[in-house]
């Protein structure tokens, strides 16, 4: 994949967005997230009203309504966590690689998690959402580390080598997955549910298990904002400004790996959130990565929760997995991104 430089911040190294405009956008983002949270606990195979949700929170609701609303809490919380992780990881990947089409799958994380699940299911009898999560997490982390090691071999770190290392590792792992699932049909039955990406069928244990990895990755991402702004101006300029491109690039890849691994292990490989959200956020707040990371943490959960709600209501009483819905949403976003790249090339 050819790399295309993401537009660098204007001015003396940092784009200064108007504080009032940022505050207004922040309020809009919080309002949109609150709307998505309400919709996630209100709508499903049996919809409830906002008043019934308030009654549940106050402990005065009908027991049947209480069961329905409370059953949606785990998928709502997981949607917030996964959306944040995928969106921030995408922002970091696009900033580090300076490629607007970069997303977490480039690191081979999805393939690593998938291969680990298939191997554990085939030879260790792993099954169920919690077992799947515990096997997906180390697979995703190992794949990310391998890509970093292979891509960093030789003289210095090359973004092109990292991308190629991710592509090669993904190809090898996907061949392994196909070989195992074709020879063991019972493994495919377990694997196919996870690989689509879904928020349903998980409990709070999954959330608490991946939360430490997501928290470390997010805090690291917040700390990298100024370094990413300098890196967008080019390595030479970043060094002249007192930044350390190698540390920023390595820290960004580490944070993206932790965030992507946590999200993928928890809910499966959900595509396009990490690609589409950074583009939307960049259009709203500009090229300052400090603002991009913050707003990605708001818009990512909002997009994922609303996609999950759409999947629940369009095929009642069954539902469409959120990974399928985000693919329908993300495809137009990818086409728009490609057209913008052609327009600026």
Describe this structure as you would to a colleague.
Helix content is 76%, strand content 0%. It is built from 15 helices and no strands. The chain has 345 residues and is mainly α. It is globular. Helix 5 packs antiparallel against helix 8. The longest helix has 25 residues, at 73-97.
Strand content: under 5%
Q: Compute the gyration radius: what is it?
A: 20 Å
How many helices? Answer: 15
Run of helices and strands: HHHHHHHHHHHHHHH
Q: Which structural class is indicated by helix and strand composition?
A: mainly alpha
List the helices and strands and how they pair.
Layout: H1 19-42, H2 50-58, H3 63-71, H4 73-97, H5 109-124, H6 128-152, H7 159-183, H8 185-196, H9 204-223, H10 225-231, H11 235-240, H12 245-267, H13 273-285, H14 289-313, H15 322-344
Keywords summarizing the entry:
345 residues; 15 helices; globular; mainly alpha
Structure described in brief:
This protein has 345 residues and is an all-alpha fold. It has helices at 19-42, 50-58, 63-71, 73-97, 109-124, 128-152, 159-183, 185-196, 204-223, 225-231, 235-240, 245-267, 273-285, 289-313, 322-344.
